[in-house]
Amino acid sequence: MVSKRRLSKSEDKESLTEDASKTRKQPLSKKTKKSHIANEVEENDSIFVKLLKVSGIILKTGESQNQLAVDQIAFQKKLFQTLRRHPSYPKIIEEFVSGLESYIEDEDSFRNCLLSCERLQDEEASMGASYSKSLIKLLLGIDILQPAIIKTLFEKLPEYFFENKNSDEINIPRLIVSQLKWLDRVVDGKDLTTKIMQLISIAPENLQHDIITSLPEILGDSQHADVGKELSDLLIENTSLTVPILDVLSSLRLDPNFLLKVRQLVMDKLSSIRLEDLPVIIKFILHSITAVDALEVISELREKLDLQHCVLPSRLQASQVKLKSKGRASSSGNQESSGQSCIILLFDVIKSAIRYEKTISEAWIKAIENTASVSEHKVFDLVMLFIIYSTNTQTKKYIERVLRNKIRSGCIQEQLLQSTFSVHYLVLKDMCSSILSLAQSLLHSLDQSIISFGSLLYKYAFKFFDTYCQQEVVGALVTHICSGNEAEVDTALDVLLELVVLNPSAMMMNAVFVKGILDYLDNISPQQIRKLFYVLSTLAFSKQNEASSHIQDDMHLVIRKQLSSTVFKYKLIGIIGAVTMAGIMAADRSESPSLTQERANLSDEQCTQVTSLLQLVHSCSEQSPQASALYYDEFANLIQHEKLDPKALEWVGHTICNDFQDAFVVDSCVVPEGDFPFPVKALYGLEEYDTQDGIAINLLPLLFSQDFAKDGGPVTSQESGQKLVSPLCLAPYFRLLRLCVERQHNGNLEEIDGLLDCPIFLTDLEPGEKLESMSAKERSFMCSLIFLTLNWFREIVNAFCQETSPEMKGKVLTRLKHIVELQIILEKYLAVTPDYVPPLGNFDVETLDITPHTVTAISAKIRKKGKIERKQKTDGSKTSSSDTLSEEKNSECDPTPSHRGQLNKEFTGKEEKTSLLLHNSHAFFRELDIEVFSILHCGLVTKFILDTEMHTEATEVVQLGPPELLFLLEDLSQKLESMLTPPIARRVPFLKNKGSRNIGFSHLQQRSAQEIVHCVFQLLTPMCNHLENIHNYFQCLAAENHGVVDGPAVKVQEYHIMSSCYQRLLQIFHGLFAWSGFSQPENQNLLYSALHVLSSRLKQGEHSQPLEELLSQSFHYLQNFHQSIPSFQCALYLIRLLMVILEKSTASTQNKEKIASLARQFLCRVWPSGDKEKSNISNDQLHALLCIYLEHTDSILKAIEEIAGVGVPELINSPKDASSSTFPTLTRHTFVVFFRVMMAELEKTVKKIEPGTAADSQQIHEEKLLYWNMAVRDFSILINLIKVFDSHPVLHVCLKYGRLFVEAFLKQCMPLLDFSFRKHREDVLSLLETFQLDTRLLHHLCGHSKIHQDTRLTQHVPLLKKTLELLVCRVKAMLTLNNCREAFWLGNLKNRDLQGEEIKSQNSQESTADESEDDMSSQASKSKATEVSLQNPPESGIDGCILLIVLSWWSRTLPTYVYCQMLLCPFPFPP
């Protein structure tokens, strides 16, 4: 036991005196051993020396160590006994101490007494420890000597205040203080404490620091409170000692309230503390946190702590330069910055605290979550979220939820994330795996903003972290690409594209991972394949990366394999990959500053590689029209978006594009001859004079030969020896030709402008009466002919839309008019050709990954199904109101309005049928370029008609008519929805194909959303012009017809077209301003410019107007259009557009009232009816507008009471097909929508009321009680409407939201009644009386559901009964709290139906109960409901009772109900 104790003490001493003993022990011992015999022993006649010698210590002179001849414990014991047994005790102690004082007057002797003693060789060999205590330490271990020795030391210490180290580099003051540490026993702790604090007050600062930090090792627990108080006073007096004092206070056992005061004192000084001191201070603050005040302390801490500005910019910049120069391989050089080192140490302290204290981590997350303002979020917040995410696995889901909410609300933006990584990359580097795990989780989200944030995590992790982390980033991105989730794949590929540009050399090191994606090409879309091959080609053919031949070889192998495949899908992948790779190989690098002229130009060898690759693609695709068309489209996209080397572009012009004329262009004067089914004519020519050198497009003969080749089999084409030219390639081939000419001649298309004028060899397309007499094959032939003609015209418009001359503009508008006319003709053919499958207009994988036969079958099924559904809808419109209402059951469970994309399909009249057919054929039309919409700038354009001598013969005025305007607006609206409405991330189901969302937008998808928004912003002014013109049209129309917009003088077709244009314009504006990209700082200028356009329409203002002013003026401008809104759909879009503008404003209270007022006006307006009254207003649209009205109105309860108390009674008293006079949109057909929205909003409103507490003031209690009275009154009005409107959807809504309202009453209202019952007894009883009638009706509704055995209703009954049972218990608790429990009474309650009539079957079952007790019906009859009344004694003065109804025993949940009513008499109810 003695040996173990000695060993532990020596180890403690070893660690505590490292500054002195470690420095001194080795040289001293060596020197001593060398001169052991030569050194003299202290010879002194003093009692001090004699007693020590007797006890076992030999004092040495000079620099020699004192020698310990016996064990340390034995020495202390013998000396103690010697002193006690001495005849002159206790005077001997004074003599002994006096001798010590005399001895240590010599500096060398004093030093020897403070240093450890040397054991003699025989003793050292026999003992386990090689280290012994100093003489002073041994003497302090003797109780009778300790006080005197301590006094001597404290008297000696001031001599060395200003001598930090002696000649031997030994710090004497620190050595003296170390003697007091870890004493086995302190005889007089209070005296020691007093002496130490006095010493601290006079000591120099460096010694103060040493003494203070040694206090926990010197003092016992009993002195901690006194020392703590003294140190807190010292903390106020001397701020330079803050760090050692707080370090010590963290180690002392102190009262929590005292620590709270000290912590608050430190928190007040936090902003002025040096960075070097922060780790210790933060450690103290976190150590003193309790569960009660954790949130408050952390919130204050994160507000006052801003580490972003702690590191000096010069240091930060230097460290970043050093980081880049070292390739991020090591962080040792960066830690030379003291600021960064302190921050790393600080975060280590925080990590330690949150790892072991769950309270701290939860409070920190909560503090960040409670921060609402964008400006209040700091870099420190993000770092803390990352640290907690990596430290505590239990909080990962919580942190992810907080981050998602912050990202959605725009509180955490890219700039903040970038600053976080740039400032604290050394801290975050250690959490690389956790950050990548978080990014992976965010990429699984459905929200585009969250996905973007996850991609930024990958990007910055690659940019700022070392090589190992970069490898992990690339590996994670490759995993996302191979996951099959479309949104993940797109995002991961976009990140790879950025990384290739950001750091190509680092990406080259990880190219082998990216190359592995080539094995997983089956499940990625064409646009994703383009991105992948772009990344790989950039790495393989970059001039900076010469050692990349292995990637080139692998890519060539994969592309050749895909091109030679007989499976059509793989051939298309090969085409896309080859063209993308050729674009990188032949890219024009003449403008690259990093390359010399020789390296920038394309060498002959490289040019040969490019041309051979393209010739390979051409030869592999020429046997398939679809593959050839895709090749032309891909090549055209390449030329459009990439700047090719002049050599490569010249080869394209001489080889591919020159074949167009041979394939498709013929002389217009030579009519083709052949056995055609229809007479061939040159139609749609824009030149009316006859010339010998005119040209025409040879469409009908080519289409006929293709059909003939199909029927005759492949032998015919093989025997002819001629290459089969498919008319399918006409539009793609022309696109390639146009873009090649445009690039070669800097946008000049004079070489091919004859194709704009030239006619097409067709036949008479107008069907007339011959349509019914045509065979199915002839009708299909005519449909294909029209589709191909439409696609030709679409590409013509794409090509020449940006021409500036009036003549060319007129021709383009004429072609646009031809497109609209041909679509009308096409509709007539499609209506009688249901099984027809059009020729493809878009040739990417998403339309060609299934065989043509499957396409035919599926398309036919879709058309048949659509036809049947439309027929059923037409028949269903003749059904009764109740039947129609019952069909809405499917939409009952989701009260939210449909997505705005669904509103795109809403049209009226004949236009609906047209749109349905065209919508089915959308994928077969060529895509319009975004530049086409520059036509919207056109007003009146003059077109000159010239004679043969080029003289003006006539002048014709061509303008953009309503049908052409609608055509352009519909296409633009679809494009904006596709690009600006983010796709919902959805995993591809097993054995299912991807959706067709992007079909027809492949060219658009190759542009960024920012580019699209910028292009559309250029159209804002002409669109405002069109919007105002349409507004004026409907204003004039209303004036001419005396306010009746659908009067007899209105042209129906024109009215519908103008109305649709109005709707599309509002839809485009809404899609534009609702774009989520405006929340990003780099897009703020775009928003400012757009708002300036709108506000300038109202009044010409300055360009430097503030954003709030622009928002206000834009809101006012758009609000002015409400008077001319022609349809309910337009009204909804206008409201939503105004709401989007409103969301961007900070001062929105006043405008919020305008939204509510406008919504009410639309609800109170009589809208023109379509062909079928019931289809005039969609239920989803009405639901959305009604929700907007109730959410924005000042008082929801008053609004509900107005509709239910005024509008509905008007509807009840009106004829069957009429509507409410106050709310014309409220009809018997739309009542269920009104009822559902009012019930949902009422329940949502009462949930927001805070439950009452005893601490609330009397006024607050009264206000809340009044509010609940109004809410219950509204609930009562709504519930009683089921007596009149008893259809299934209405009852379903009543059961669902009735239960939710009762639950809200339980949680929010009952605590209020607990405290209000005594002071507002009459009000509480009135409230319960009204609520009793409502719950009784709910009970009747439950009985009604069971009697009718309606499973759609009975599924809600158990939950409702359970809730009402809880209400009984809660009311009983309230009465008990108010000393009224004794008034319960029991009775029976009869079952009744919705009208209050007693259920007859119950009586008959009761009468036969005794005769057939075993019969199930009789068992049910015995289950009579019972009533329990709560009645106070008359003398109590309370004139109310609560009726408790316990339902029958055959109900599984045995629920109970509560009712309240005023007593009419003091007697109990009869049994």
From TrEMBL:
Q: Is Ribonucleoprotein found in the keyword set?
A: no
Q: Name one GO cellular component term.
A: nucleus
Query: Which keywords label this protein?
Result: Isopeptide bond, Nucleus, Ubl conjugation
Question: According to the UniProt record, where is the region Disordered?
Answer: 1-36, 868-906, 1396-1431
Protein location: Nucleus
Protein name as catalogued? FANCD2 isoform 1
User: Which spans does this entry mark as compositional bias, Basic and acidic residues?
Assistant: 8-22
CDD domains cross-referenced by the UniProt entry: FANCD2 (cd11721)
Query: Bias regions of kind Basic residues — which residues?
Result: 23-36
List this protein's GO terms for biological process. Answer: DNA repair
Q: Where is the composition biased (Polar residues)?
A: 1417-1431
Family affiliation = Belongs to the Fanconi anemia protein FANCD2 family.
